[in-house]
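Go through this one:
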Amino acid sequence: MILGDVDSNLAARIRMSDASLYKILDQLDLQERSSDPSPDPSSTGYPFRRRGVLVQLRQPSATTPSTYLVFTRSLSATELSFLHGSFVHNNSQCVALLEALNGATHAMAGRVSRCTHIDGMVHEVRVQFHDNIDPQIFCPEAVRHSVLVVDDDPMMIALARHYLEELNATVDEAPNGKVAIEKALIHPYDLILMDIDMPVCDGVTATKELRHKSYAGLIVAYTSMNAPDERARCLGAGLDIHVPKPCSAKDFVAVLRASHAEIVRSSLSGDPTMHELINAFVASLPDRVIALQQALETSDGAGLISTATALREGGASVGFSPIAEAARAVEGAAAKQGIGPSPTNGPAATEVEIKATELVRQCRMAPGVR
């Protein structure tokens, strides 16, 4: 089947508001949990509530398909579930356009395995894919993140663990920065939640040490120290994001999505002849990041510009345009105002520090290719 023009909109077709549709989805989820208190989402499906997903359906007796916008409910490796405004026969052919976390769109083909009447005109349709998919490509809840929570307060660790495990994360813990360094250098976590004010070794010192040892993973400042100058100090030390305590469930969702979605990929990764060059450039990034940070700390303008230039030229050559553009911004800021750390009594980072922090962030998000 080839996707054509949209025939109708689900909400208008069944004359329900989004709030009413969400209520139906909540009721379906509650019924499912009641029948199975500990469902395995890898088989039952991860929450995948998306409004306006384009699907094309061809009933067994139809000669041409019809195209609709639907409200999806769940997604697994084998199946998609969505709400529809009319009955659909089993074995109807289906193609669904699913948007991946990186923004790419994939046409997933399958057949209708079940259609259940819910209420009024609303039916739940389940589509069995012809070929298994990886739900992690489309659904943040399907991503199994490994997270290290670093905090000297057991209550804060327990709270973070509660929220993170609800979001399908595996959680490790460390009572201070020293233990965090030891663990992170052995096990590269998807995300480190780093408290700042801790005994033995504080979060800023631990982060600087990890970055000096070429640790490129996402490190999030998880702290009640929220003044503007404290934020600038955290970002300047190599922390990627600043999240204030206490965190809500939405804060943890946002952080986990950031750890999965913020990936800088080479535009040339589809060319096998470029893989060796791409991987060589990515392998050089940890040392480049260290050189960049050392140039900032020592006010080495020539070293900063030299490193930024190498990143700009190398990034552009192997398809990492975001890195090249961020490096160009550092060159421009350095040429305009010189470099050096902000005054200790000043709340704002210099333009060079801000641009350099963004360049470092882009470098850390660049994976190689296999």
Notes: The chain has three domains: 8-140, 143-261, 272-364. The domain at 8-140 is CATH 2.40.10 (Thrombin, subunit H).
